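ok posting inputs for the flavin-adenine dinucleotide job
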Amino acid sequence: HIGPTSTSILIIGCGTWGSSTALHLARRGYRNVTVLDPYEVPSAISAGNDVNKIKGYARADSFSGNEDHETYVSSRLVAESTKAWETDPVFSPYYHDTGHVIAASKPEHIEDLRVREGADKPESGFLALRTAVDFRSTMPKGVLTGEFPSWKGWHKKTGCGWVHARKALTSAAMEAQRMGVKLITGSPAGDVKALIIEEGDVKGARTADGAEHRADRTILCAGATAPQLLDLKGQLRPTAWTLAHIKMTPEEVKLYKDLPVLFNVERGFFLEPDEDNHELKICDEHPGYCNWTSPSQDGGRNTSVPFARHQIPTVSEEGVSQFLRECMPHLADRPFAFARICWCADTPNRAFLICQHPEYTSLTLGIGGSGHGFKDIPVIGGYIADCLEGKLDPRMARTWRWRPETAVGRDWHDVQGRMGGSDSVLNFANVKEDEWTSIAPRL
Ligand code: FAD
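and the output
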């Protein structure tokens, strides 16, 4: 039996979903919640430690009540997270409802977008963009200067945009702490080395300083590191993407304010410069990188092991430059001020993995962000808390269930619906030392 005053809870990971879970548990009155993380908030390796993330839109047909499970789940998530981004004071200062331009370059991908986004339906609120002039007109004069070769797309003006990720994550963690959640961050005290497994159940976790953190219930929110702490039967593939920043002048920052997100599903995306460092973030689009260990190193298991690096492969640098040449050529030769690889973890169908562990009854999983888990930070912790309390909506429980059968014989090189770059999942192990950028480290 779970009760806010009686149950002790340990959360492993104070990143995007861990901080949201801590906040929601505190709001439900839980008085004995501890969160462990090897880094101070915001964690240097959290996928959410980023200047901005895309906050998508509700689809035109959302919430009719007749959709299949997965559409119901994604529609409900968008509807609830949008409401929370607009109204929850912990998150609302960080939401920018600036709109979204979605585009592709190859005819087959343009057609996919049209169908998937329902872009031609009048009720979808999309405006078609057919020419370079159309694209340029979505932003103030002087922002988009490119020729947009072969680009076709759509513009949605409201109900979507971007969020300041790092600030939202930090805000959630600090509010949880203010409400009484205990944060143990930094290494070795917050660095979980193993789960404590006794009598066939999880009893807490052991950290690098040798301490044991025992709790009635444990919640695993370690993102891409989770497979190192628990055998997930191949359900998570840690995969990294690449991002780069370029410095903008104060005049450019003014001109680039309140811009819609611009996303070409084959080329990449950019969001307006961040208000503190005056840097424009660009992600080149590709199916991702893994870091496969050799079978001799990992006992025959196929494991992609995350690592931190503040550089990106030079092919990604070229991808960013190509994207800029097509939409903002005046910025294409500007040197990068910052770059990094950013790890997330994909399930086979990219639906989240939020469930009770089938054998360890005291263990709840809150993992599997699959490249789209930031936008839900205001509400995701509520669902993880529902799961812990055994009252998760059955359609969500079904979509996010423990499903090792879907990972049997998993194609580890599956692009999982993503495109761009070489149109294949690459391996960092094959990137030679001189094939990385050499950006001066930030002091
Ligand atoms: P994280 O936020 O990574 O948190 C994991 C935490 O676990 C970290 O704080 C880490 O320090 C901690 N941890 C690691 N090891 C241990 C340990 N041993 N002990 C204790 N704690 C540990 N989503 C969107 O919605 N919109 C976007 O535009 C978007 N863009 C993205 C762009 C990139 C380049 C990437 C990589 C992801 C993007 N995502 C986006 C996805 C989103 O960022 C992730 O799905 C989400 O942040 C995952 O949250 P998480 O809590 O699972 O993982």
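notes: The domain at 1-95+161-235+348-410 is CATH 3.50.50.60 (FAD/NAD(P)-binding domain). Residues 256 and 272 are 6 Å apart (CA to CA).
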